[in-house]
Amino acid sequence: MPAFTALDGTELAYHVVGEGEPLLCLPGGPMRAAAYLGDLGGLSRQRRLVMLDLRGTGDSGIPADPATYRCDRQVTDVEALRDHLGLDRVDVLAHSAGGDLAILYAARHPQRIRSLTLITARARALGVDFTEEHRREAAALRTAEPWFRAAHDAYEAVWAGSATDADWDALAPFFYGRWDTAAQAHAASDVEQSNAEAAEMYASSGAFDPAATRAALAVLDAPVLVLAGDVDSGPLPRVAAAIAEMFPQAELAVQPDAGHFPWLDDPLRFSRTVATFTTTQPCGHHMIGRTRTWCGAGSDRRDTGKSK
Predict the structure, then answer these.
(1) What is the pTM assigned to this prediction?
(2) What is the Cα–Cα distance from 240 to 234, expressed in whole angstroms?
(3) What is the pLDDT of residues 284-299, one digit of tens each?
(4) What do you get for the CA distance between the two ends of the chain, in Å?
(5) Cβ-contact 202, 124 below 8 angstroms
(6) Pairing relation of β-strands 291-294 and 250-255?
(7) What is the rounded distance in angstroms from the CA atom of residue 185 to the CA atom of residue 242?
(8) Peptide bond into 235 cis (omega under 30)
């Protein structure tokens, strides 16, 4: 298992899958081992995925100081990995809560970013978060699903502050475009792959300074892809559009019939969208302020509670 040493001496592991130019992948959870990313829907056929196990997760070591689980303090881990790989500039992909880490890395080391891909990503680092209203809006799209009533009752328990572990399990279908056997197996691996203590620290007080981060990224000279699922609540497509507006060079892609893990819902569409973005400039687009809505492969616009 390849590994490197962080500045504080913690041994961090990463996984390499596929061929081609490296794509540095940051997992969400928060603080879930990178294994849940799989091969990102076959993206490994176009890119060499370098998937970091964040400190205290997967095959990475547990730090001596739990305070280093805080998101902003893990930026140095990402930079140490870039340096370890010997790359001057990197393509970075981040999923869900990993979006905050990628955004902070881009703000602190803009000269190291060749491209940034944010997959159903959080952006608390920019002052954007997902609300109960967002969750309810997305949930209302799924009323015809056979699992809807039980999952929605579980959401109500979450919003009331009375959720049990069974409730958290029951609402899992909302995070997938299709609640099939692959999605069920993927959801079942969540707890064993996650570090609960680290997750509590990840977005703790002091982790984010949105005004400073927005100012730093206002001059980011790198293309950004913000990809949302059209039935996902975190972010809703319109919230993803607002996130994209905060970058000078941003593309918005909304994947049809996709939830929070779009590479599971339509692997080919997902991998084509990301591979095309990270290797070429889009050939057609609509302008949304400074932001462009992607019209390339796999991204036509059809338009809770728990972090993922």
Answers:
(1) 0.91
(2) 8
(3) 333 333 444 443 333 3
(4) 25
(5) no
(6) parallel
(7) 32
(8) yes
CATH code (residue 230) = 3.40.50.1820
The number of folded domains in the chain is: 1
**Do the domain assignments include residue 173?**
no
- In a domain? residue 158: no
In the structure encoding, which two tokens stand for residue 211, read together? 């005004």
Question: How far is Cα 175 from Cα 115, in angstroms, rounded to an integer?
Answer: 26
The SS3 assignment for 225 reads strand
Two structure tokens written together for 56 = 């205290």
**How far apart are the C-alpha atoms of 251 and 293, rounded to whole Å?**
5
Residue 282, domain member (yes or no) = yes
Q: Which tokens in the block code for residue 72?
A: 């902003």
CA atoms of 302 and 253, how far apart (whole Å): 10
Question: What's the pLDDT at 136?
Answer: 97
DSSP 54-120: -TTSTTSPPPS-GGGGSGGGGHHHHHHHHHHHT-SSEEEEEETTHHHHHHHHHHH-GGGEEEEEEES
- For residue 73, which amino acid is it? R
**How distant is the alpha carbon of residue 37 from its chain centre?**
10
Contacts of 287 (CB under 8 A, 6+ apart): none
CA distance 172 to 43: 25
Domain, as residue range, for 277: 3-132+192-294
pLDDT tens-digit series, residues 252-290: 999 999 999 999 999 999 999 999 999 864 333 333 334
The candidate with the shortest Cα–Cα distance to 235, out of 123, 140, 125, is: 123
Distance CA 59, CA 45 (A): 24
